Amino acid sequence: MSTPEPDGRAMFKILKAIANDGVGARLGSLTLPKRHPIDTPNFVGLTARGAIPHLTPDNIGKKSELGGVYIALEDFMETTRKKTTPPLLEIKSETIDPLHSFTATPSHMFTVLGARRHPAINSPLGNAQDSISIFTSTGFQKLTNEAYRKYVAKIRPDIAIPLADMTYSQATNPVDSKRRTNINSSKRQLRMVERTEDWLAEFFEAAEDGSEQDTPAVFAPVLPLSYPTQWEYFNQLDQDFVTRLSGLAVYGVDVLPDLSNHGPLIDLPRLSLDYTATPQEILRQISLGADLFTVSFLNSISDAGIALSFTFPPPSDLAPGIRPLGINMWSPEHEVAVKPLVEGCKCYACTKHHRAFLHHLLNAKEMLGWTLLQVHNYQVISDFFAGIRASLNAEPSTFEEDYDDFMRVYDSELPTGTGTRPRARGYNFKSQGGDAKINNPGWEKYGTDSDPALAGEMAGLAVTGAAAEGKETPLVPEVDAAELDKQGFAEISK
Amino acid sequence: MASTIASASSAALTFDLVARCSTTRARASLLTLPHGPVPLPIFMPVATQASLKGLTPEQLEETGCRLCLNNTYHLGLKPGQEILAAVGGAHKLQGWNHNLLTDSGGFQMVSLLTLANITEEGVKFLSPHDGKPMLLTPEHSISLQNTIGSDIMMQLDDVLVTTSPDHKRMREAMERSVRWLDRCIAAHKNPDTQNLFCIIQGGLDTEMRKECCREMVARDTPGIAIGGLSGGEAKADFCRVVRTCTELLPELKPRYVMGIGYPEDLVVSVALGADMFDCVWPTRTARFGSAITKHGVIKIKSYEYANDFGPIEEGCGCACCKKGEGGLGITRAFVHHNVGKETVAAHLLTIHNVWYQLNLMREARDAIIADEYPAFIRRFFANIYSDKVDYPKWAVDALREVGVDLLSDTNI
């Protein structure tokens, strides 16, 4: 059996396109060598340091339908005095691709490698002529195009996205950082295009001399700029590079309709790296022709304690009013609710557990709460995409009506959680002066001479370290004596 | 292959003695509880708040665990008795169809809360939120544990650090614990579906422990715990107390040494005749980036593991380490990469450490059944220490008392 060429048109089959000019919503199938094929539109999981937050690889393999993951090289590039080469580059793995092996990604899933996380932290340093600025857990660092190409060759992702000269949002709060920053300076815009173009040419040039086996599929970056600004770059893609491209990594989807001017690019699969703050935004991007998504709100909505509850198409019963997109599991109304997070959901959290447990886990800051929410929310998104594919597949397609119904039926914003969230600070965020605290402190000094942390240590219980991160067990009651009495925990003594 | 030597049953428990070590006091048995059989000796991981630190009940089940702990104190605060009752108990709350053991809640109370003092009525403490004086009685503890529905409940005892020099107070605590056991038994509403274990107190005083054993045994609870240990006493004292108690305890009842969890402590305590252990250490140390292996504890968090692409422990059968079908292919480098940064690293080490502890007891059980426990102990220590000079003195001494001389080359 020969390995298929890294050619988008062999890897990606368009099964049905709604519009006849080749742009607009479409149904496809993406097959990467060695991995299970996936139907599109679909999504890949966003990893943090090679892991989907809160999900161990066994849970990803058994409890999700994920076909692939997006991994950012910057998550592996930190260096310290003792550790000068990133360990990811040292791994020697004969049978398993190094990136798969290092991250323990299940073998049926494909990996998509980009230089930066999605969404990424903006670097105050900016990019340079031959390098971009990346954010690691030990600070900002330069990554040259040359180095990136070598890393790609070495760690062998299934799909690689060459460097793009991007400027990211400066917002640090989890909600605003999901929105795109528009670059208004035309000088900067031109430089973005030029550099991205040059870097892509170098990426391919360098790849030419080596006769490497198993080269990854390359998804060329498409910038979040207007068509007139980057049409020359598109020309270059469709004339010089198209045979070596397997797809497009689209940082701004609004330019997708203009692909109709570039016939050879139309059949390539399109991975959206545009911001997706809501499912409505996903639908809009699908209608513009995006095939594959990184659902950037997904990990953070689980951290916020929200169980997603939308379906596509929306339920047909005509209950009046706007439906919410998710359920706030922090809400006390779930205290004794022995029922699934979402009725009829087939995920592990809904079939084996119930709202009361989930509410308890959040309330008790137990890590399992976020694990179960991730399992559930990933399932909701998988089902959402399956619904979209079914609607596109119908004869005639019902996608447009279903899309309209979805817009009418559901709230336009995701709910915000009311409790404390994990991962709200740490290696993955850059704070700025004057940022308000996201969570209330987990510990305060009680009384004058007692330190609950110390007392806890003495009692052999874990209290030091990441109390606020939800890893440790809170020890002091949060309610008053009357409540404890009412609960039968103890009585108020006379 | 191993058949039952002798059995004893009470309303909610059956204890089948399967094998006795011909040298030490170690024994292998099968404890059948309301939610299924549990082979002894056993290590019980601690799922304090109805969740084992990020593991799904299914992942916990995959480690082989069939009996784990919940803490009454924590469940009493969150979600609280009313909600536990409405949901239908802790098994239903956490989706765990195997056995649960709960402590009395008194230990945390005394250790954590300001001005907790103990009177004949119960534990008095000030509510941390409004400073009102409150009282936790044996009746409260049992009522809460009845609502939780644990398969094994523990009596409320008067806990005192074993190292306390106050002999008079120690005696008072011991005698009070006996009186409180009577109150617990009287308050227990579900003796047919839940087992209430007594707790032997008496500090490090051998005579007082013996006296307590006699009093407690006379009350004929389905199982017996040895309490008040693991509070910083010398290991030699710990071993002496366990040995003293096991000598007096009826053979056909499970013996639970509370709060014990280091692998060496487990292996020695089994030789001294104990069956059940619990400790938060294996799961806590996992969250802080350490893995338990047969060659000792390794700090995966340390930079030397950054480029180590081997499994957490070579030859280990846990989901993280095992090779081939169903193995996850987790490397030390990947765990190192995420320790303290992503919760996944903590989950993976928790899976490994819990599996290690459970497997250690499974292997001990097999060795007892094959009547090879002394050889098992020797192998265990030889794996941790390359030189016998480094063997801990307390362990060598304690094992000598039960017929195993770790330092001699001759006996097997």
How would you describe the overall organization of this protein?
The complex is a heterodimer of chains A (494) and B (412). By secondary structure, chain A is α/β, with parallel strands linked by helices. Helices cover 30% and strands 14% of the residues of chain A. In chain A, strands 4-5-6-9-10-11-12-13 form an eight-stranded parallel beta barrel. With 412 residues, chain B is α/β, with parallel strands linked by helices. Chain B has 15 helices and 17 strands. The interface between A and B is large, with 86 and 85 residues. Chain B: This is Queuine tRNA-ribosyltransferase catalytic subunit 1. Chain B: It is found in: Cytoplasm. Chain B: It is an enzyme of class 2 (transferase). Chain B: Keywords: Cytoplasm, Glycosyltransferase, Metal-binding, Transferase, tRNA processing, Zinc.
Cα-based radius of gyration of chain A, to the nearest Å: 24 Å
Structure classification of chain A:
alpha/beta
Mean pLDDT of chain A: 85
**Biggest sheet details of chain B:** 8 strands, parallel
Report the uncertain regions of chain A.
Answer: 1-6, 444-471
Radius of gyration of chain B: 21 Å
How many distinct beta strands of chain A? 16
Strand order in space, largest sheet of chain B:
5-15-14-13-12-11-7-6
The oligomeric status of these chains comes to heterodimer
Helix content of chain A: 25-40%
Report mean pLDDT of chain B, rounded to a whole number.
Answer: 93
